[in-house]
Amino acid sequence: xxxxxxxxxxxxxxxxxxxxxxxxxxxxxxxxxxxxxxxxxxxxxxxxxxxxxxxxxxxxxxxxxxxxxxxxxxxxxxxxxxxxxxxxxxxxxxxxxxxxxxxxxxxxxxxxxxxxxxxxxxxxxxxxxxxxxxxxxxxxx
Amino acid sequence: xxxxxxxxxxxxxxxxxxxxxxxxxxxxxxxxxxxxxxxxxxxxxxxxxxxxxxxxxxxxxxxxxxxxxxxxxxxxxxxxxxxxxxxxxxxxxxxxxxxxxxxxxxxxxxxxxxxxxxxxxxxxxxxxxxxxxxxxxxxx
Lengths: 141, 140
Known about the structure:
Chain A is mainly alpha-helical. The two termini of chain A are 30 Å apart. Chain B is built from six helices and no strands. The longest helix of chain B has 24 residues. The two termini of chain B are 21 Å apart.
């Protein structure tokens, strides 16, 4: 059951990213380009994608949080770390910098492979390398 | 505002929210893509199946969307060296920071996690700063 749910969830996620144009780096960068506001060229669409996602996701989370356990698995697996530490801040800064450079983040990049652009493959390969580099160096064991 | 597409953005976002909601409701898992991938890059063998299933679904998503008539074409303007640098930063940074736009943004903010709200604000600001410099400083 968990596997089927994960497959369906991934499918919905990928459809949502496509519908919301998040698989298009130019669309993402148009949101991050706040310098375009004076010229009238800013595109706030990404905020609406994220806003829509948070608003729909929230009731599900709070329901299962109140229930105490999920429907098809033994327990909720939530992040244990709740502190705002140096790792969080430096990680977010590095992630955001990469996001601003390429207009890609993990979900849209994976989903975007389907469009077949070599550039997307290059990004994903580098992303996996970056993840492996983290695992081999700073990851706490 | 240019090329603003509020309705498809909201609809796409709603599907993403539904995806994350279902994954949490049924499986008790955060739909954080960096974490889902990161969990595959390691020795925990019994965690692999649902992660692979999710990523297979994610790959199939655009195909399904196109079959439903949603036409999209990615526009990638960054050069290869920039894309490589971007990928390295996104990969390293997302694991170091414990999440990305889906994990911290969609899931973390929905559960009102202060850590995720700080992370989201930070990576949004960093992304905006980089784009500002690239488009309005460097290029004149």
